[in-house]
Please model this.
Amino acid sequence: MRAFAALLLGCTLSMAALPVSARVVGIELPADVSVLRASPLPGYTVAQQKCGICHSADYVNFQPPGMDLEQWTAEMNKMQHSYGAALDELELRLVAAYLAVTYGTAQATDPQVLALSVEARKASEEKVLMAKGASIDVPALLNANACLCHAIDQKLVGPAFKEVAAAYRGETDAQAKVVTSIRQGVVGQWGPVPMPAMSTLSDAQLNALAEFVLKQ
Ligand code: HEC
Model:
């Protein structure tokens, strides 16, 4: 501190000795440290999305170097538990691994880090499948939503799914029409008994059901 004060004083003195015009010098700013360091690890993307909400990346950049995976995981636990950072369990571990590799002592080739990347890839593939409706359990949906007023190939209270599929065959927007029928309910199209609206189903579930019916 004393050395710093002396330096400052020296600086001021030498500047005072210069003519005014000579004091206008270019100012070189330090390199921008307030962004997170880029990385191919999946935790980098998560950190970009989730960490800037409350504070700048300086909080990370100014942590002491040399922290290992365990220490970074403890930091991220603190972010989640004490400060309410919106991270799920996998995201928390992904960010910790990214930070430990990029700012600390972990290596991208550590088995724990590699395993996490595999887990992240699987989780994101599952999300894509869910979005497509491919992993929706259609029989369970049929059971849970009174869809069993219909049978596949014979008329019960409602028309057979095969009849419905046949009626829509060749229509270009069959899928959208059947989704609407299931969501809003129908009456009069097939007989006097109305089909109730299934308004609590998600778009993905409605699409999966419509696809199932039209396939019969
Ligand atoms: C909901 C708000 C919030 C979010 C989101 C958040 N933090 Fe923080 N973080 C804080 C607060 C508040 C502090 C300051 C605590 C203090 O001053 O002691 C902090 C401090 C820190 C510190 C310094 C901790 C220390 O011990 O000095 C680091 C490192 C950090 N955050 C990293 C992150 C990372 C990485 C993320 C993204 C996963 C993140 N934070 C997301 C609120 C948040």
